[in-house]
Write a sequence for this structure.
């Protein structure tokens, strides 16, 4: 699988591009995760996702993406994920186009609905996606009623329409109760 993906990400001279290889690896990981996590599939109002595990095979978090898992495996770009961990923290996974971001700590300017933007700390995990581990209570409250969310990182802005977020958050809570730590 990796060899086929590597061929897909070559420059005009036939060399594997660094960004192309990273994108190929990300796609391969998502494809494998989608297959491996099929038993943990969750869905709500057109959003789909799954419970994830860390490198020690311990529950990490539940995530719902603004598309189906099938669409996610076709293209992991220009999408939004809403997460919930075992401690109840709600976070975001924001996916841009390849080669948009620089890995490492990132400041996310987040505009939720009509509210003014707020700065939230995040981590650019790759050159195209950033993780916001936890939203503060005021931003989370605004998210519940918002119809749109806008995120800007390194001068790159992306917008997403939001359905009834309350139902998504309830589904994530149920996912954590089902797949998360017991006790």
């Amino acid at each position: 699988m990796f060899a086929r993906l590597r061929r897909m990400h070559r420059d005009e001279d036939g060399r594997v591009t660094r960004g192309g290889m990273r994108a190929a690896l990300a796609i391969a990981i998502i494809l494998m995760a989608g297959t491996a996590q099929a038993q943990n599939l969750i869905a709500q109002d057109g959003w789909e996702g799954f419970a994830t595990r860390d490198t020690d095979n311990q529950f990490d978090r539940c995530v719902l993406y603004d598309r189906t898992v099938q669409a996610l495996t076709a293209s992991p770009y220009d999408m939004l994920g809403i997460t919930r961990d075992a401690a109840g923290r709600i976070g975001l996974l924001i996916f841009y186009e390849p080669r948009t971001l620089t890995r490492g700590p990132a400041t996310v300017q987040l505009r939720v609905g009509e509210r003014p933007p707020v700065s939230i700390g995040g981590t650019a995990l790759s050159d195209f996606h950033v993780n916001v581990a936890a939203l503060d209570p005021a931003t989370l409250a605004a998210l519940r009623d918002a119809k749109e969310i806008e995120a800007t990182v390194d001068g790159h802005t992306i917008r997403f329409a939001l359905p009834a977020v309350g139902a998504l958050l309830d589904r994530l809570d149920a996912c954590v109760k089902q797949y998360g730590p017991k006790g």
Remarks:
- The chain has a mean pLDDT of 84.
